[in-house]
Request: fold
Amino acid sequence: MRYTILDCYTDEASGLGVPPYLGTYPRYIYGKLTSEGHDVTYLTIDDVRLWRKYKNVKKEPSVKEKTNILVYNTTKNSAEKVFSNTDTLIVVLGVHVPGKYLSALPGTLQEVISLLHGINVHTILTGPAVLGTQLEGGKFFEKVDLNFFDDVKDFTMSFDDVGKIVTVSASILTQIPSTRVIEIETSRGCNVGKCSFCTEPLKNCFVNRSKSSVVKEVKAFYNAGARHFRLGKQADFYSSDDPIGMLKDIRKNCPAIEVLHIDNANPNSVLGLKGEAITKAIVEYCTPGNIAALGVESFDPVVVKANVLNTSPLVALKAIKIINKYGAERGENGMHKFLPGINIIFGLIDESKQTHTANINALQTVLDENLLLRRINIRQVSVFPGTLLEKKAGNKFVRKNKQYYWKWRNEIRQKIDFPMLQRLVPVGTVLSEVYTEMYDGKTTFCRQYGTYPLIIGVKGRLPLKEKIKIKVVDHMLRSIVGEVVE
Ligand code: SF4
Reply:
């Protein structure tokens, strides 16, 4: 059978599959079908947009234009040719935690249906969209007629089965011309929380992946040429199967790895029995620029209680201190070795003006105590079916407080983010391993590979996809201005 996987990109509370990241969904399906003897081609939505919207012409942006991120992440394959040789098309799609993406745009159901209109091939929808998808925060999941698809299917494989196909999966890289950060799954479900907005406990019961299976997959992709990895698909890295041994083994087996980062961490685990030892190991075995994304969501005790959030403001603050204690040293690429990041969500149950005051006060304490935070992610909640949020409030609080969101967000950006960024990377700091990525007018935007890298604007148009070294010359609210240095 001739299968084509169409990657429209995925973003979930646990797990990122938006370029430069390569998510688990297309990799696992590719490995499974290929090892069963099928012919499998990998396409991105950018390939299909290039064919259907731009008639296969990739135009260079003029000096007044932006790089067209709708067609930035094409594969080596031509969608037009591939579709005429496809029996079954598997569409991987789904955004549960919408973010801002520098050089990619995930597809929506509406977009993919319109792009595939008139193409006569058996089509299966899979990925997080099986539960719903929404590219814009503050909204309900996208409502479209799924009858367009011949089937809606969950391809979830057991970790044992994933382990059997990792070498075959890794050969997907032969179809992708640019660098990808390989998102590695270390667990499924959530062992720590029942947060009102989150789909993770609905998708899976908690199951940890064995250390050996994680290491085996990293090694397989490393042997296939990947050098950038994030152990990022999990609710809490600290609860992984032997996290210290896992990091040690990866470094031993993959000596030339360039990026090894983690993502989610539960502040309670950072404070746990082995929390400090795991933190030290992350600092020792991962690469600099690493961040623990602490899902605090709100520092308002009323909201914490109403939404069954798993972290109290006090615990979050203690976890921030521990990570700073071991990770705040600067690494060889110019960034700190390991710092905390904070997620804040607007629109949760019982949100009020007091919630914003509590958030600002807690973040001000972090600033006053001379601690470092690498980033504060603020997003409006999306409402998904089956969640406590949907049952109890839907988008009631988003509707009620939306009028304040710009002000609240701006206050956090001005009062906290800006001084924090100046403290993190003062003028004159040199950052290496920076890659030129896209143009916006006469500015080239660049970043390092890794988990939530800083966006760097450099004056002028530099050749894209090249490695440079920059010196910080100025700060914007959440990004920096750099100058190329030799
Ligand atoms: S801790 Fe909460 S937000 Fe994080 S995965 Fe678990 S349920 Fe979801």
